[in-house]
Amino acid sequence: MSKVKYYYDPDTLSYRKIEPKKSKRYRNLFFFLLGSALFGFLGLIILLNTSWVNTPKELSLDREVRNYELQFEILSKKMEQMEQVLANIEERDNNIYRLYFEANPIPEEQRRAGFGGVNRYKSLEGFNNSEIIINATQQLDIIQKQMVIQSKSLDEIAKLAEEKEKLLAAIPAIQPVRNEDLTRMASGYGWRSDPFTKARKMHRGMDFTAPRGTPIYATGDGVVVRADNRSSGYGKHIRIDHGYGYMSLYAHLSKYNVTKKQKVKRGDLIGFIGNTGRSQAPHLHYEVFKDKERINPINFYYGSLTAEEFENMLKFATQENQSLD
Ligand SMILES: [Zn+2]
């Protein structure tokens, strides 16, 4: 309230009120309004900077952030599930597949290794939610790396499986003469009396007695490396190189059905039983080599014989009879 001012009027001999000029009144009003506005504005700024009052926009942002946090939590749970599935695959990989194919298991530290050196997550630091974002990113990076390692391991196993299949096809695993064609069970590997000298001699193969002309089959996949009679005692004979250190030899043939360098599959007809070379009667003398050493072929017939047939053959083959050489 402005002071009321008076002045003495000599004409009326009285004190009269000094009326403020209209323009001055407007000016006062303007300053009053300006002052109020500034005060109000300052108040608003103070209010906005305190945490207990939020604008609608802030409220909606807040809701959104909380929604993100929730989503991150859900993603994190899903990643945990993925990790569990991966861990299960890794376990089977190490304990079944790699074991079966005789590959070394991949150590846990190698599978689960993080990333050392520089901080890969620096750009994610310094925000309110940095921690959950960094954790999730880290988790994903590790899963990604685990998957790469797992995928490589499976590639390796696929290759090993293919090799194993080739190896299994190559090993001389069947009997070279059909069971029903045999007139007498085989004379086996071991000490036998020599048909010519009657002296005890190591017989390093198996004899399959059958009529002349009975078919002889390749016992594993391979390449014919010899089909000739230039090896003393064997007469007309065939040698098949199966790879992996395995070779099979078929002796005393009457006729060949293959030639040198020919590729053969297990079960292919390669020749016919005869009595050529150092042989007393028509029969097949069969040998198996591993790394150039002769081994007992009887250990390989799991491909073609029933358990009973194998038992029978074992019984006959281990009998100390006379070989036919
Ligand atoms: Zn023999």
UniProtKB/TrEMBL annotation:
Database matches in CDD domains: M23_peptidase (cd12797)
Alphabetized UniProt keyword annotations: Coiled coil, Membrane, Transmembrane, Transmembrane helix
Transmembrane segments: 29-48
UniProt domain M23ase beta-sheet core: residue ranges: 201-297
The keyword Coiled coil is assigned to this record: yes
Cross-referenced Pfam families: Peptidase_M23
Family annotation (SUPFAM superfamilies): Duplicated hybrid motif
Protein name from the UniProt record: M23 family metallopeptidase
